[in-house]
Structure formats: C-alpha cells, structure tokens
Predict the structure.
Amino acid sequence: MAFQRAKAALAGTRFADLHWVAETGSTNADMVGLLRAAGPSARPVVLVADHQTAGRGRLDRIWEAPPGASLLMSIGLPLDRYPEERWSLLTGALGGAATDALEGLRLKWPNDLVAVGAGPDGSDRKVGGILAELHDLPGAGHCAVLGLGANLNWPEVPAHLQDIATSMNLLLGGPVDAEVVLTDLLVSFDQRWLPLIERSAPTTAEFHAAWAARSATLGRRVRVELPDAVLVGTAVDLATDGALVVEDDQAVRRTVRAGDVIHLRPEG
C-alpha cells in the first residue's frame, strides 16, 4: 500500500511530505536519518511502513504486529514553532489525534491507546501506543520523532496477547481502511492538536481539557510502578507539562512524570 490517496488528501497540510516503505527495521530510526539528511531545510515529514522488523515501544519493549495488519508510522517534527516547556505535550497531542481517527479509543497515560472495557471481564485492551523521542540534529536543530503503532486489521490476537491487546477490526466487526485512519489522524494532529501547543497558543488549558475528555486514566484508581516505589491511588489531574497527578489513600497528591500505570478494577 503506497498511501497515494492519503498523500493527495494531505496536500496543503504540514504533513504533505509522506513517505511509504514496505518493510523496515524501525520507522523511528529511519526518521532520524531523514531529518539529519535534510539538515537546515528539515520540515515536518511522515514515514509509514507495512511492516517493522525491529519496532520498539516505551522502555525498549518489542512492538509485535503481523505484516500489513497495523498502522506503523513515525512523524518527524522540527520544534522551532513549539515552546520547550510544551514539548512534553506532543505525546498527548498525537494520542488525541489518534482517538479522533480511531473510533471509540481512549488515552491511557502516558502513551497507550486503549479500548475501555473491551475484555470479556470488562478490563481494557491495548490497541496502540506512541513512542516519542527528542533529538538535537546537526543543521536541523531540535526535532521530535513521534512513532505510533495501531492494530487495525489483525486476523486474530495471538494467545499470549489476548489478555492485554486487541485490534480495531475485531472491535468494529469489519476491516479498517488504513489510508482513511492515517489521513484523519494527520489532519487532526495538524489542524486541532498542534495549534494548541504552538507558540501562538496563549495557555495549555484547552489542550488539557481536550486530553482529559479522551482519557481512560483520569478518575481511575491506578497503581504506578516507579523506579524506586509503587504508588497506589486515584489519577485526579494532568499537570501543565502533561505529567499525571495521583492522589494516594492519605489524600497526598504526587506528580508522576515517568512510570508504568496500571488501571485497577473497582473493588467489590
């Protein structure tokens, strides 16, 4: 799939420079090369692959996907238009755009796309995830590389993933058009979400409200696995930099900027 329809639909947006490959190791790794090669002329660019042989998630976890069954993409974004204090909001912004394009999904902090209650026991199922990386590249300057993988048309979920993952076609009961998803996602990212965190945006309040409306985490009881501790409490807010605010059982609030979040089932 060469995504020609998507290229035509994206003409005139900041993501008109769309590349496709049948197979690669990692679109994030390839994107660094594209930005480095562009140097001072670096502009927003998108790379989509039908299959990745070395896809990665957060904390260097392996990203598994059958060939041709998922949307696998990376966005290269020079950061001169975005204040440094808002760079940490890019993961949430891309996640918000993904929920606009993928019917029924919600955002699990910090970087997962989930179908809430999709498991037979009412638990959530992961459909996708985002891996954001920052690079300071010669000539190109500070750039974000935003990788996204979303399960679109899996024939079935492998046995070892059935308790945690699913695919859009299995949720919706039919095949999903990857070009439509890609186009809708990038148009939303371009026109709705990135303008909320550009230099011209007066505050991040509108971003936080939009993110909260799509959150699967806020209001939930969670366990946060930190490098040196485990925090249990209720996710109550999003900080101005996108960090998660958790209130523990002693009503003490703690701001979490990195950690694995597990949604806990209601007791009783």
